[in-house]
Amino acid sequence: MSKIIDYKGVEIHRAEKTVLKDVTFSIGEGEFCYLVGRVGSGKSSLLKSMYAEVPIYSGDKAEVMEYDLIGIKKKQIPYLRRNIGIVFQDFQLLQDRSVYDNLSFVLKATGWSNKAEMDQRIEDVLIDVGMNHKSYKMPHELSGGEQQRIVIARALLNNPKLILADEPTGNLDPQTGITIVSLLHSLASDGHSILMATHNLQLCEDFPARVLRCRDKELVDEI
Description:
Elements: E1 3-14, E2 17-28, E3 32-36, H1 43-50, E4 61-64, E5 67-68, H2 77-82, E6 84-87, H3 99-109, H4 115-128, H5 144-156, E7 162-166, H6 174-189, E8 193-197, H7 201-206, E9 210-215, E10 218-221
Parallel strand pairs: 3-8, 3-9, 6-7, 7-8
Antiparallel strand pairs: 1-2, 1-4, 4-5, 9-10
Helix pairs in contact: 4-5, 5-6
């Protein structure tokens, strides 16, 4: 199984303070992992380092899909990010446009230009998340769970190998959260690598998978 993420001895700083040190782990293709830890333990910083929003301070190796994050050039970052789907807790949908227009905006921004191909891709990802009948809706017309499904559809647009989900159930009721986690697990079964940050340890029990824990500025693999 090829490694999608491969970190060895990585140190991450924020505002000149050490957030995580000696981070060593890897995630393979099609693997689902939870990332847990207290607020401020470094979960979001670790996720952001993977798409080069937070720089790697030092390390022996920090690769995501064979991109070297330690020596990555600015011009390489957009290409790295096209291979990563990001699911946010607060959705970050554009409120002034429909679901379809939210998704087409992302496709245009990542180089798509053929309308027929764009329409087909949008239909495909909406079917994947069970929202193909909602493309005309505005975000405010959707429930929280429906909005999060649209966010996952947006993350899938460029068929990424890696999906990073930062507290994707944090603003959802428990039953809706279960539905979203089930959907993410099904995406892992389809070959996407998933790293999901969560405070909800019950979800880890209900949907068992490998657990990585941020604790005392270190990452502990609780396989």
